[in-house]
Amino acid sequence: MNKKECPGCAMNIDVEERICPICSYEFPRQAPWLQWVAVLLVVVMFLILVFI
Ligand SMILES: [Zn+2]
Question: How confident is the model at residue 41 (pLDDT cuts 50, 70, 90)?
Answer without folding.
Answer: very high
